[in-house]
């Protein structure tokens, strides 16, 4: 059972993937650009209201990053599976694999949509408090629980904490102007990754050097999450959100629109009645749902959304069960924390490197995805067949790193051509569909009500799953490349006939394709 969104495994890690969303420039006059420029008052003058707001903004961002760091420190997460299988808890491998761990996926699926909607409706902070309370309950159950039902409840609350991650990921965007989104998203993600790394290292030091018992480690985790709960009550309360709580100037525009509408109703009552009955169609959320249909029609968005759904499904299933595999291969090795820390560092490095990768993604996306998925399939086969624990460790670290390399690329490819609101909705739908698929696979292969496979057999299933994805991606890549080179040869033949005219199309240069992210400069 992998520790989740904050073991450094992102299955239980709140630091999974904050999205740098592309948003339009601010519509109001309050978008001042930099925090630094907004908070640099003239020393000879009294502090202005803008400068005080800038200082308050800085403090809010710093406090939120500190909260993200502290809430990610749970040293015992990397050792949950050894804890459950130890003499202190005394559960069997079959119970942990087929009865306890599957509850996490089901809970996550059930809670994801309510958490997504409540996050926006309640403006983030209450959901973060719910997440912090769930963390306290988790470690109380780990500290005091002794029965199978207690551990299943623990996994249920883990599902709640995973579903509530969206609150932290999007909270930061409610505090700052759109021009600062990319920067503050980097701050918040870095703080969580640092917390994950610190947590894993601290847990490993406690086990390896301090000879700390699992009971003591659970108590340490309970102390950290209790402090995180106290911090959550001190978070500033945002005044706006994406869908249900709009900005003040938008509210004023709505009031102006209602006043104009009432005048129209006086002139034309029939028209006014029709507008009131169809008012639900004008809501932002419903409008976004209707816009999602256009995403499916765009090849680039469709490809990366499908990657997000199918590859993230396999990724998180591996994270949920890899600790059980390690215990199966070598029950005496206790380097989970060190491995998770190394995986976090390498994943952060590959994510950073992805930002400097310059290729024509409209042509090579399928091939790159197919090759990386093939490598991941090979790593899963190595993990499922080896009897050497260090082969498992290294394969796991590389498996995570390859996935994290593609995450920022997928995020940019999806977000770069969508509005902030639509982007959040698309990512939410992709995550939900991936969670449904995880639950189906879990129910069939892992749950005792299904086939109830042991962990080695499950990793064979994951290998077959990634192999099938590889075949699909490579076939798609071959189709795209053949079509591209045919078009390229046709364009060369057309250009060889003479200078371009109105009847002779001008080929798009590679530079234009690269700068426009796969779309011609005319679009």
From TrEMBL:
Record keywords, A-Z: Membrane, Transmembrane, Transmembrane helix, Transport
Gene3D superfamilies: MFS general substrate transporter like domains (1.20.1250.20)
Segments crossing the lipid bilayer: 61-80, 100-119, 126-150, 156-180, 192-210, 216-238, 303-326, 338-356, 363-382, 388-410, 422-445, 460-482
A Pfam cross-reference name: Folate_carrier
Bias kind Basic and acidic residues: ranges: 11-21
UniProt record similarity statement: Belongs to the reduced folate carrier (RFC) transporter (TC 2.A.48) family.
Protein species of origin: Ilyodon furcidens (goldbreast splitfin)
Protein name listed in UniProt: Solute carrier family 19 member 1
Organism superkingdom: Eukaryota
Membrane topology according to the record: Multi-pass membrane protein
UniProt feature coiled coil, ranges: none
Keyword tRNA-binding assigned: no
Positions of the UniProt region annotated as Disordered: 1-52, 490-523
Chief location category: membrane
Polar residues: bias regions: 1-10
Compartment annotation: Membrane
């Amino acid at each position: 059972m992998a520790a989740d969104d904050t073991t450094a495994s992102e299955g239980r890690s709140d630091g999974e993937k904050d999205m740098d969303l592309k948003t339009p420039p601010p519509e109001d006059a309050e978008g001042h650009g930099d925090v630094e420029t907004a908070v640099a008052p003239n020393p000879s003058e009294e502090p202005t209201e803008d400068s005080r707001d800038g200082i308050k903004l800085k403090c809010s961002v710093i406090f939120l990053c500190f909260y993200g760091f502290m809430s990610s420190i749970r040293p015992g997460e990397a050792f949950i599976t050894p804890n459950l299988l130890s003499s202190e808890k005394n559960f069997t491998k079959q119970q942990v694999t087929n009865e306890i761990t599957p509850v996490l996926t089901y809970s996550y699926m059930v809670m994801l949509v309510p958490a997504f909607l409540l996050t926006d409706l309640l403006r983030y902070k209450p959901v973060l408090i719910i997440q912090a309370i769930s963390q306290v309950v988790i470690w109380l159950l780990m500290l005091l629980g002794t029965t199978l039902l207690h551990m299943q409840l623990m996994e249920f609350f883990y599902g709640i904490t995973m579903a509530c991650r969206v609150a932290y990921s999007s909270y930061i965007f409610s505090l700052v102007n759109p021009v600062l989104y990319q920067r503050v998203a980097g701050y918040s993600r870095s703080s969580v990754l640092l917390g994950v790394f610190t947590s894993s290292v601290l847990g490993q030091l406690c086990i390896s050097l301090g000879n700390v018992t699992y009971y003591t480690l659970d108590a340490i985790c309970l102390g950290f999450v209790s402090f995180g709960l106290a911090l959550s009550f001190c978070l500033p309360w945002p005044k706006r959100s994406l869908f249900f709580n709009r900005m003040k100037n938008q509210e004023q525009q709505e009031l102006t629109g209602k006043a104009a509408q009432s005048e129209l109703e006086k002139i034309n009552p029939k028209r006014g009645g029709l507008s009131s009955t169809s008012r639900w169609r004008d809501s932002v959320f419903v409008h976004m749902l209707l816009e999602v249909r256009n995403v499916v029609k765009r090849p680039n968005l469709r490809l990366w959304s499908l990657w997000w759904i199918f590859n993230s499904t396999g990724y998180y299933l591996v994270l949920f069960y890899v600790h059980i595999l390690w215990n199966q291969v070598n029950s005496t090795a206790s380097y989970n924390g060190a491995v998770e820390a190394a995986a976090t560092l390498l994943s952060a490095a590959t994510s950073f490197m992805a930002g400097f990768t310059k290729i024509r993604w409209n042509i090579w996306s399928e091939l790159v995805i197919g090759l990386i998925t093939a490598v991941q399939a090979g790593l899963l086969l190595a993990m499922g067949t080896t009897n050497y624990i260090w082969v498992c460790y290294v394969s796991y670290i590389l498996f995570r790193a390859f996935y994290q390399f593609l995450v920022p690329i997928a995020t940019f490819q999806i977000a770069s051509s969508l509005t902030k609101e639509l982007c959040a909705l698309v990512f939410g739908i992709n995550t939900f569909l991936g969670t449904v698929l995880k639950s189906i696979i879990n129910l069939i292969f892992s749950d005792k009500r299904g086939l109830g496979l042991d962990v080695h057999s499950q990793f064979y299933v994951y290998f077959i799953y990634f192999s099938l994805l590889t075949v699909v991606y490579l076939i798609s890549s071959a189709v795209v490349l053949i079509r591209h080179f045919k078009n390229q040869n046709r364009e060369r033949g057309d250009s060889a006939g003479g200078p371009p005219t109105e009847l002779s199309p001008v080929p798009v240069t590679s530079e234009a394709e690269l700068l426009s992210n796969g779309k011609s400069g005319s679009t």
